[in-house]
Design brief:
33% of the residues lie in helices and 13% in strands. By secondary structure, the protein is α/β, with parallel strands linked by helices. It folds into two domains: 43-88 and 217-350, 3-Layer(aba) Sandwich (Rossmann fold); 107-196 and 353-363, Rossmann fold, CATH 3.40.50.10860. Helix 7 (219-230) packs across helix 11 (348-366). The protein is globular, with a radius of gyration of 20 Å. Residues 218-365 form the Tetrahydrofolate dehydrogenase/cyclohydrolase NAD(P)-binding domain.
Length: 370
């Protein structure tokens, strides 16, 4: 975008983008609410009561919050933090209870198969985290590790095996794949009934159609919507802007907001005056992969901000030599928005939680378990 600002927006010297690293770091303690959110069923209705405010917001009057015309509470000196780590923990606990019930009732344990090709450190970390998450909630995990120079046919054979295995209810092919492989061919080979990543074109097509529902919703957009719902953000009739139009996040997020009856605009690299369009939004989902692109001046007072971006920038004061920032300039936006996700600790933990949720849904559907 012509208006893109790539520098760090903190008070430190301007930062340079590092090679992309997807490692997730634990969020700082100031992002954690002082009390846990009330337990409620997975995918609670949009009208569910908001989670408790962080301690810094405890003194804000409820009258001020109710008077706003935006999607969330009115803007304060500091936004209310959307704690994705806390919500993801709650969801995992709910999933574990459902899996235990299913096992006791019909003797079935959900199974998730992951195929990893190559030895990328970030991909290995993702797969390891997914395996730990499965074990924690009672999902059985299956893993195939193939060398970088494996053929596409080898990957397709493993997918076919998992497609026909009744103990496997979800199949995930870890991306990115090596350059010599055709992503589309491989992802399309996953049975739509087991496409827990939600990337199958038939799932995306059903998501886009009126009166149809996909078998699975892509995990990161689903996590974004779940955060909005669990924090009591009204979506129906509100203006929403999605920044970015990728098949993995941006496009499905826009479709989900539209299904929830928001009026949706998509901002992309050819959008003229993106800041003016974004400033009209009650809800903003930023998923473009550019550090600190969205400035405070782009934000409508009181808006709800979901920042999907995870971008490493140089930080000589950090022991690692870098730190992670989002697509939204947190220091500026948090002074204007009503709700905002931190990076890290916002959307990231929700992605794996939604993968577990999709796997459980698949097992329930296949075995007709309510």
């Amino acid at each position: 975008m012509a208006s893109s600002i790539l520098s760090d927006c903190s008070s430190s010297a301007t930062s340079r983008l590092l090679p992309l690293r997807r490692a997730l770091l634990a969020p700082p303690s100031r992002f954690r609410p002082t009390t846990a959110p009330p337990r409620r069923p997975l995918l609670a209705a949009a009208a569910a009561a908001p989670l408790p405010r962080a301690r810094a917001m405890a003194s804000v009057s409820s009258a001020r919050a109710s008077s706003t015309d935006s999607a969330t509470v009115s803007a304060d000196a500091c936004s209310k933090i959307i704690d994705g780590k806390l919500v993801a923990k709650q969801i995992r606990e709910e999933i574990a209870v459902e899996i235990a019930k299913m096992k006791d009732a019909i003797g079935v344990v959900p199974g998730l198969a992951v195929i990893l090709v190559g030895s990328r450190k970030d991909s290995q970390t993702y797969v390891r985290n997914k395996k730990k998450a499965c074990e924690a909630v009672g999902i059985k995990s299956y893993e195939v590790n193939l060398p970088e120079d494996s053929s596409e046919d080898e990957v397709l054979k493993h997918i076919a095996t998992f497609n026909s295995d009744p103990s496997v209810h979800g199949i995930l092919v870890q991306l990115p794949l090596p350059h010599h492989m055709n992503d589309e061919n491989i992802l399309n080979a996953v049975s739509i009934d087991k496409d827990v990543d939600g990337f199958h074109p038939l799932n995306i097509g059903r998501l886009a159609m009126q009166g149809r529902d996909p078998f699975f919703v892509p995990c990161t957009p689903k996590g974004c919507m779940e955060l909005l719902r669990r924090y009591g953000v009204e979506i129906k009739g509100k203006r929403a802007v999605v920044i970015g139009r990728s098949n993995i996040v941006g496009m499905p997020a826009a479709l989900l907001l539209q299904k929830a009856n928001a009026t949706v605009s998509i901002v992309h690299s050819n959008t003229k005056k993106p800041e003016e369009i974004t400033r009209q939004a009650d809800i903003v989902i930023a998923a473009v992969g550019v550090a600190n692109l969205v400035r405070g001046s782009w934000i409508k007072p009181g808006a709800a901000i979901i920042d999907v971006g995870i971008n490493p920038v140089d930080d000589p004061e950090s022991p690692r030599g870098y730190r992670l920032v989002g697509d939204v300039c947190y220091e500026e936006a948090s002074k204007i928005a009503g709700l905002i996700t931190p990076v890290p600790g916002g959307v990231g933990p929700m992605t794996i939680a939604m993968l577990l949720s999709n796997t459980l849904e698949s097992a329930k559907r296949i075995h007709k378990f309510k």
